[in-house]
UniProtKB/TrEMBL annotation:
Residues 298-436, 818-918 form the PII-uridylyltransferase/Glutamine-synthetase adenylyltransferase domain. Its cofactor is Mg(2+). The gene is glnE. Involved in the regulation of glutamine synthetase GlnA, a key enzyme in the process to assimilate ammonia. When cellular nitrogen levels are high, the C-terminal adenylyl transferase (AT) inactivates GlnA by covalent transfer of an adenylyl group from ATP to specific tyrosine residue of GlnA, thus reducing its activity. Conversely, when nitrogen levels are low, the N-terminal adenylyl removase (AR) activates GlnA by removing the adenylyl group by phosphorolysis, increasing its activity. This is Bifunctional glutamine synthetase adenylyltransferase/adenylyl-removing enzyme. One of its GO terms (molecular function) is [glutamate-ammonia-ligase] adenylyltransferase activity. Transmembrane segments: none annotated. It comes from the Bacteria. The lineage of its organism: Bacteria, Pseudomonadati, Pseudomonadota, Gammaproteobacteria, Lysobacterales. Its EC number is 2.7.7.89, 2.7.7.42. Residues 41-278, 549-795 form the Glutamate-ammonia ligase adenylyltransferase repeated domain.
């Protein structure tokens, strides 16, 4: 702490001298204690910071003795409000509140508690006063009017919701408490003087407010503010849950979303209160990115700014520029925008919410640290202003003496030094707050395009489009006039039309600047037709120029993503999700994201599939964006798409088993597994690829095993139904699309075989009847979902099958024969374009080369049985010398080139056929040369020797 000026020393000495004199008078028997250096030093520091604390210690000497004993480590004893001493309740509550408040001052001033502890202590104190008072009043009301019961006779209690800082657990030292009273069900009390629920709880709530708020000779306990209830002072005092739900659905306003964001049941029926808040969550948090919340924030900020100007509140550290409220609004606005999609952002407390925003990459770490530091600074100063005389003030003091006391109590040399530090913090807050509200104002769409759009459909000159860069200006003009005439545009509200009028010129300018303006425009208009029904998406594009620019960029270069955005506007959120530009989730995170979908809702299959589809769409969109932006290789993207599919299958299997078990029970001790073949098994899935699945089961007792439900069925039918449900659920169409098409033709005996195979029959089939091409398919097969021990058993069957001693020449003949048949049927190459998958030297040639290697040589190289994806298989073969280092590197490069080109074609809805450029030619040559070197000549009638 800085050295004190002479003026301050005189002031401090005068204040502390008066305080010590008052205490000696109040505690004559403890003069020796007060004379001790330890006690005197503490009391002087407390006296300099708080007249209220000294007043309390004079009136309650026992509080002083306790504080000197343990420095306030333990809270003060709570009062007992007995019915026999009703008249004493106000004094008891006020005495408790002042004693506990003084303990908080003591610990704050002496540096024993930080700001968070003081706020938590103030919150706990208010809660306990509310709970003690309500408990006592409920007993009194029950004696007079009985207990309210619903139609079934269940007792009903008042629910007291704390809003604002009380709800957030961050109540400042001398704050009022924002309360809303409610009750779960209508009913009537069962006493002699019966009351209906509304009047009963209204009277109870009014008595509660009076008991706490009324000014008596002992002061007050807590100031109570009931104006945040529906309709404010004009509304009823206590509301049923049903009435409040109706109100919020029909008339809830933006400011109420902010208010109820922090709501928490603090007294009465806490469990019922939490149930109500769960039902209110859709009102507070939208399912999509909700940039419409900024309109409410702008309106509230404008109203506060007007109040600040009118009442000259520039020195108000709560409501003034750069004050506490700006931090609160900034954090709450970001929570409302993103919290519908990210449950981790729904915390009621400010600082944990701020950290969650940083962790979710919706705020930079620097901004988070800046706001955290400013918040601590302002809240500490706010508390000291209020601790001085227990006043509900947020204004900087006008008195020179008070200013000096506050400054020195916080460790500053004088008021000017504190003011410099305060102004610096407020400037930082204002900068961050203005940045949140600024995006719309930063857009500067060309005036000509703005005038053109607003003149449609009757006016407007297409020459403006030509000047902007549309080569096909006439076609663009016709498309825009049709759009402007559409019922969707004509039916917009004034607010939504205003957003569209701001968005369209910017979209037109961005489309005109793209590589294919007309293509971009057509795709954008298709998207806008769907978005018009959801004003929140217009709000997103209106508020966030970055998202708007990203949208044009994406639709210009990817037909697939443009189609998905148009069909599922929810994906627009992904354009602005900070995670899109960051590292993508790994296998475990993708599995966890799918597993967490609609947890505990398996009785509602439709809801599970809808939610799972939305998660799959969002994650696959994020993977596509990473590929399109060049932030991730095609190999990594294909692998992540496969892991995402694994997670989806895991979740769907859980749903399918739940449904079958609900009807038939379960098969005791039985096991089920889903095996992924093809690109899923090889972890090289494409966008929109189907899933090659094989289903296995194993049950004690084999075919004689039965399920244990009321409608028992044999194990084979039970698992067949599970498998059928998995296929059906994966292919079911929902509002968010279908999950995946499924191909089950790779099961034993193909289309003629059973959908589900027992482990024993599968083992026998692979050993006795499977063709070479089926063993080739087994090279990429892997366990995807189900019982892990059965997955291990599958791995054993696979390893035994693939590592069998084989004649390399016979394998070579079979592999080449199959490849030639496939190429004759499937290769779509011609003189102008090369089929990336089926063409000569394409991806399938590389797959067949590696499958041949495993079948012919894994008996000598068992490590080759572990990898499933192409790069890993190449590496394994290179380690053991079957491929030389240069050859292996060329094959890995060729695979990456062809896979990347193939995924790029899929993203733009083009066939996977491309003109042969240098990279493709090099890739084809590497694959063909390696195949030839190992005796696999797929392109001529002759068959080479073994490798």
């Amino acid at each position: 702490m800085s050295s004190k000026s002479p003026a301050h020393s005189d002031l401090s000495h005068s204040i502390t001298a008066r305080a010590m004199a008052r205490l000696r008078t109040a505690l004559p028997a403890h003069a020796d204690v007060l004379a001790e250096d330890h006690a005197r030093e503490r009391l002087q520091r407390v006296a300099a910071a708080s007249d209220f604390a000294i007043d309390t210690l004079v009136r309650q000497p026992d509080v002083l003795l306790r504080l000197l004993g343990d420095d306030g480590a333990q809270p003060m004893a709570e009062p007992s409000l007995s019915p026999e001493h009703r008249s004493e309740w106000p004094a008891l509550l006020r005495g408790y509140r002042t004693a506990e408040s003084t303990r908080l001052i003591w610990r704050d001033v002496l540096g024993l508690d930080d700001v968070d502890a003081t706020l938590a202590g103030s919150t706990h104190l208010a809660e306990r006063c509310l709970q003690l008072a309500l408990d006592a009043l409920e007993i009194e009301f029950a004696q007079r009017h009985g207990v309210v019961r619903d139609r079934e006779g269940n007792p009903q209690r008042l629910v007291v919701f704390g809003l604002g800082k009380l709800g957030g657990g961050e109540l400042n030292f001398s704050s009022d408490v924002d309360l809303v009273y409610a009750y779960e069900h209508d009913g009537e009390s069962d006493g002699a003087r019966a009351l209906d629920a509304e009047h009963y709880f209204a009277r109870l709530g009014q008595q509660l407010a009076k008991l706490l708020d009324e000014l008596t000779v002992d002061g007050f306990c807590h100031r109570v503010d009931l104006r945040l209830r529906p309709y404010g002072n004009a509304g009823r005092v206590a509301w049923s849950f049903n009435a409040m739900e109706q109100y919020f659905q029909r008339e809830g306003r933006d400011w109420e979303r902010y208010a109820w964001q922090k709501a928490r049941p603090v007294a009465g029926d806490l469990d019922a209160g939490e149930r109500f808040l769960e039902s209110l969550r859709p009102f507070i948090y939208r399912r999509y990115l909700d940039f419409g919340a900024l309109d409410g924030l702008r309106a509230m900020k404008a109203a506060i700014s007007a109040e600040v100007a009118r009442k000259e509140l520039a020195d108000d550290i709560k409501r003034g520029p750069g004050g506490i409220r700006e931090i609160e609004f900034l954090v709450q606005a970001l929570q409302l925008i993103y919290g519908g999609r990210e449950p981790g952002l729904r915390d009621r407390r400010l600082l944990p919410s701020l950290q969650a925003l940083v962790d979710a990459r919706q705020m930079t770490p620097d901004a988070g640290a800046t706001l955290t530091g400013a918040y601590w600074f302002l809240r500490r100063l706010e508390n000291r202003l209020q601790m001085l005389r227990d006043a509900q003030t947020h204004a900087l003091p006008e008195s020179t003496d008070d200013r000096q006391r506050i400054a020195h109590g916080l460790g500053y040399e004088d008021w000017d030094a504190l003011r410099v530090a305060l102004d610096a913090q407020r400037a930082l807050v204002t900068s961050e707050f203005e940045a949140l509200l600024a995006p719309r104002r930063k857009r500067n769409a060309p005036d000509a395009l703005t005038s053109y759009w607003r003149a449609l459909p009757e006016g407007g000159d297409s020459a403006v489009l030509a000047d902007a860069g549309f080569v096909e200006a006439g076609n663009a003009d016709a498309a825009l006039r049709d759009f402007a005439r559409s019922p969707g545009v004509r039916g917009l509200s004034d607010a939504a039309r205003g957003r569209l009028d701001r968005v369209m010129p910017a979209l037109l300018q961005a489309a005109a600047a793209s590589s294919e303006p007309m293509l971009a425009l057509r795709r954008l208009l298709a998207l806008l037709h769907n978005v018009l029904r959801r004003s929140a998406y217009l709000a997103l594009l209106d508020e966030q120029p970055v998202a708007l620019a990203r949208l044009v960029e994406v639709v210009s270069h990817s037909a697939l993503l443009a189609e998905r955005l148009a069909a599922y506007p929810l994906l627009l959120d992904e354009l602005l999700d900070a995670r899109v530009a960051g590292p993508l989730p790994g296998r475990d995170e993708l599995h966890a994201a799918c597993a967490a979908v609609a947890e505990g809702q398996d009785d509602d299959a439709e809801a599970v599939l809808q939610a799972l589809n939305e998660v799959r769409q969002a994650l696959s969109f994020r993977i596509a964006m990473a590929l399109r932006d060049g932030r991730q290789s095609a190999t990594e993207c294909a692998q992540q798409l496969a892991w995402l599919a694994d997670g989806v299958v895991l979740r769907v299997l859980r749903l399918a088993e739940h449904e079958v078990a609900g009807a038939h029970g379960r098969v005791p001790g039985a096991r089920f597994a889903v095996i992924g073949y093809g690109s899923l098994g090889g972890e090289e899935l494409g966008f929109g690829s189907d899933l090659d699945l094989v289903f296995l089961y194993d049950a004690p007792g084999g075919e004689h095993a039965h399920s244990d439900g009321a409608r028992t069925i044999e194990a084979t039918r039970w698992f067949a139904r599970v498998a059928q449900k998995v296929v059906a659920l994966l292919g079911a169409v929902t509002g968010a699309g279908r999950l995946y098409d499924v191909d089950v033709r790779l099961r034993p005996d193909g289309a003629k075989g059973l959908l589900v195979s027992s482990l024993a029959s599968y083992r026998d089939y692979q050993r006795e009847r499977a063709w070479t091409w089926e063993h080739q398919a087994l090279v990429r097969a892997r366990f995807v979902a189900g019982d892990e021990s059965l997955g291990d058993d599958f791995e054993s069957v696979r390893a035994q099958t693939l590592s069998r001693e084989r004649d390399p020449q016979a394998v070579c003949t079979d592999v080449v024969s199959m490849r030639r048949r496939m190429r004759a049927e499937l290769d779509r190459s011609d003189a102008a374009a090369f089929d990336l998958k089926q063409g000569e030297g394409g991806l399938v040639d590389l797959e067949f080369l590696l499958q041949y290697a495993v079948l012919a040589h894994s008996a000598q190289h068992v490590s080759w049985l572990v990898p499933r994806n192409t790069p890993a298989l190449v590496e394994a073969a290179a380690v053991d010398g079957w491929l030389d280092a240069g050859e292996a590197a060329a094959l890995v490069d060729a695979h990456a080139v062809l896979l990347e080109r193939g995924l790029a074609c899929t993203l733009d809805r083009r066939p996977r056929r491309l003109p042969i450029d240098e990279a493709i030619a090099r890739s084809r040559a590497a694959i063909t040369a390696s195949a030839h070197r190992h005796g696999l000549v797929f392109d001529t009638p002759s068959v080479g020797t073994t490798g």
